[in-house]
Write a structure and sequence with these properties.
Blueprint: E1 2-15, E2 19-23, E3 26-30, E4 35-37, E5 41-44, E6 47-48, E7 66-70, H1 74-83, E8 102-105, E9 117-119, E10 124-130, H2 135-141, H3 146-153, E11 158-164, E12 166-168, E13 173-177, H4 185-197
Parallel strand pairs: 7-8
Antiparallel strand pairs: 1-4, 1-8, 1-13, 2-3, 5-6, 5-12, 7-11, 9-10, 9-13, 10-11
Length: 198
């Protein structure tokens, strides 16, 4: 079954290679700071062409080849940073700031289930699991409670496996094709959060 009720769009395709990042008072390598790419980007089994991960134990691999994040959550993060004095003006955070490869419009966590597929013109991606925030996310956001806020709000985004390699580009629309619908991304995220708290 395909969901045709909402137009789903890729607003931005973002990539980066690992670079030094100051986190918890020490320098670590991270590829969280993604930069928007223009034109079509090749999608391979292990991710997007020109993208890499610093710590393959928690990012990347076949089941976490691509990370998608809803653009709708950006307003919350922009307001939160403004409230904390991390921004002097109503800044617009650039796409990729959350570390996502695909900035999506119209598809939120509560609408996505493990096993659902995103069908693009040039590739097919399968939803696998929610993202779990880490200390590097706090450093990029500029405040120590960023991970807590992500957990509290459930603004986690989701990882994708590459079912059919090809290419993807900013501005293109895609279809959501339902999988077995046994476990939603929201439920999976909450289950991992509860397990972590025990």
């Amino acid at each position: 079954m395909t969901d045709t009720t909402n137009p789903f769009t890729v607003l931005s395709v973002n990539c980066s290679v690992p670079r030094p990042l100051m986190a918890n008072g020490r320098k670590v390598m991270s590829a969280i700071g993604k930069i928007a790419r223009t034109g079509a980007v090749a999608v391979r089994r292990l991710g997007l062409d020109g993208d890499d991960q610093a710590d393959p134990s928690v990012h990347g691999g076949l089941d976490k080849a691509v990370y998608a994040y809803p653009q709708e959550h950006y307003a919350f993060w922009q307001t939160r940073r403004l409230e904390l004095g991390l921004s002097l003006f109503e800044e617009t955070l650039p796409h990729g700031f959350m570390g996502e490869n695909l900035t999506l419009h119209g598809l939120l966590e509560q609408d996505v289930w493990v096993g659902d597929e995103l069908h693009f013109a040039g590739c097919v991606l399968r939803v696998t699991e929610p993202r779990q925030p880490c200390f590097k996310f706090n450093s990029v956001m500029g405040f120590d409670q960023a991970s807590r806020d992500m957990v509290h709000r459930g603004y986690c985004g989701f990882y994708l496996a590459v079912k059919a390699p090809g290419q993807v580009a900013a501005g293109e629309s895609f279809k959501l094709v339902f999988g077995p619908r046994n476990l939603s991304i929201r439920e999976a995220f909450n289950a991992k959060r509860i397990k972590h708290l025990r």
